[in-house]
Amino acid sequence: MSELKIRTRATGALAVLQPGGLPVVTTPTGGAVDIVTGASAPGFNPLDLLHASLAACMVLSARIAATRLGVAAQLGEVRAEVGGGRAVPHRPLQHQARYFRRSRHGDQAAHHRGCRGDLHRLQHAARLPRTAHVAGVRGPFPMAMIPPIDYATASQEIRAEHDRELSLRGRMTNMKRILLNSPAAHRIYAEWFTLRDLLKPTLDDRAIWLLSMAISETMRAEVPVTFFRRALMDGGLDPEAIEPTADETLLIAFGKAVAADANAIPDELWAALKARYDDTLLVNLAAFAGIMVATCVFTNAVRVDLDPELEGYRKR
């Protein structure tokens, strides 16, 4: 899929310790925290900051999960209580964490003890396709039918393909992580980028995005639809208010026709395409549309989860 310019926030921390004083931690965006070390001194000590980071991630994850499950309105207040546990070999710090979810049905608590790997399992369990109790609402929870790779335990071949993709594109997605279970399959789907580049400069990014979104919408594939909505919105465009050019209108019609029934593309549509583009471009266009269809089939069939960074771009 098309490479995007991602809006980023400056992150990091600078700790300064003056003679005879206590550390002061600042962030590039102007945040500041005075660190304490006394056993009963009010404030944050270094371990408190570590626990605070985990707690904040937990409550934000709960909100993202509630949004995905369509129960955000019932979620209410979410609190996460995190504390330290006794260290064990190879686990220098073990966390004890507890969720509190406040809804119209009252407070509920969910306990979890363990470190990072256990937390991942807890998050995975929250998406199991069963009837479960979340914030007072019962319902089936979606999850991908095939798990993403675990880089820490993956084979050298999978790690190499993962690293190659990161070096080329700079980011990972849920779809890519699942495809990486088969490096060969990942490489085949990654030819989307090769074909996209072959369509340029005859077709610009906007035309390719509109073609891709037309295919994705026709196939009701939420992940790619939202991906291209983000591309358009980050480019300063309103997906609901775009007025396509004559060429874009033709490409949108072609994309919808391919996705709906490739055996029934009207002759007049082909005639209009042939009047504009040479045979090489038309082959690349048809191949690109085909791999876009394949992308939609994969995300739909495997039930790929929407990437968290796409949440704000969903069509409401």
Please explain how this structure is put together:
This protein is an alpha+beta fold and 316 residues long. The chain has twelve helices and eight strands. Strands 1-2-3 form a three-stranded antiparallel beta sheet, with no helix packed on it. The chain has a three-stranded antiparallel beta sheet with strand order 4-5-6. The protein is elongated.
User: Could you name the ranges where pLDDT drops below 50 across 5 or more consecutive residues?
Assistant: 86-94, 101-141
Structural class: alpha+beta
Number of helices: 12
Averaging pLDDT over every residue, what do you get? 81
Q: Tell me roughly what share of residues is in helical segments.
A: 40-55%
For the secondary structure, the number of strands is 8
- The helix-strand sequence is EEEHHEEEHEEHHHHHHHHH
Biggest beta-sheet profile: 3 strands, antiparallel
Could you tell me the radius of gyration in angstroms? Answer: 24 Å
Coarse shape: elongated
**Strand residues, percent:** 5-15%
Main sheet strand line-up: 1-2-3
Summarize the structure.
The chain is of the alpha+beta class. 48% of the residues lie in helices and 14% in strands.
Observed structural traits:
single chain; 48% helix; alpha+beta; 3-stranded antiparallel β-sheet
